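Duplicate of earlier report; Polysaccharide export protein input re-posted below.
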Amino acid sequence: MTYRLTARAAILAATASLALLLGGCATPPAPAENQAVAANPDYKIGPGDAVNIIVWRNPEVSMSVPVRPDGKITTPLVEDLQAAGKTSSELARDIEKSLSKYIQQPVVTVVVTNFIGNYSEQIRVIGQAAKPQALPYKRDMSLMDVLIAVGGVTDFAAGNRATIIRNVDGKPQRLAVRLDDLVRDGDVSANVAMRPGDVLVIPESFF
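Output:
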C-alpha cells in the first residue's frame, strides 16, 4: 500500500513538473505595439497606384488603370470616380453602382497591382539613409524592413540618435530609435514596429 502511494505521488509530481515546463515554454503574448499594428485597417488605395478592374462576363470594360494624382480613375463607362482613400472592396462596390446604369447587376473585382498608398500613410525616410525616399506602408512593417528598403545608412549617420516622428492623436511625437544597435550589433530589441505616416529622421554624426 505504501509503495502504491509513493508511486502515485511520484507520478503526480512528474505531471506537475511537466505542466510547469510547458507553461514556461509557452509563447509570450505579442507586445502591445505589435498588436496595434496587426489591428491596422486594410490597404487604402493612393495616387500612383494601379488597379486592375475585372467586370465579370464583361471583358470589354475590364482593364487596368492608374490612379491619377487627384486620386480618381477613369474607365470607358465610369468617369472621374474617387479611388484614393478606399479599399479595393469599397472601390469595387462604387464601380458596380456606376456600371449598374449600363450593365444589369454588374459584379466587379478590383485588384491593386502597384502599391504606393495614400501620401498620409507613406513611410518617409530622410537624412543619412543610403537612399532617402517615401515608402508605401505595409502591414506589420518594422524598422528593419524600412532600413532594408532604403539600403541602410551612410557612413556619416549617427544611427543611435535617429528618431521616428509619429502623429499621435493629431500631435507629432518623437520616438528615439537605435539604428546602430540594430544594424551593426544585431540587437533585435531595437527593431520597432512602424505605423502609417511615420517619418524616420537619421541625423549626421558630428565626428
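Confidence is low (pLDDT under 50) at residues 1-40.

Merging into the original ticket.
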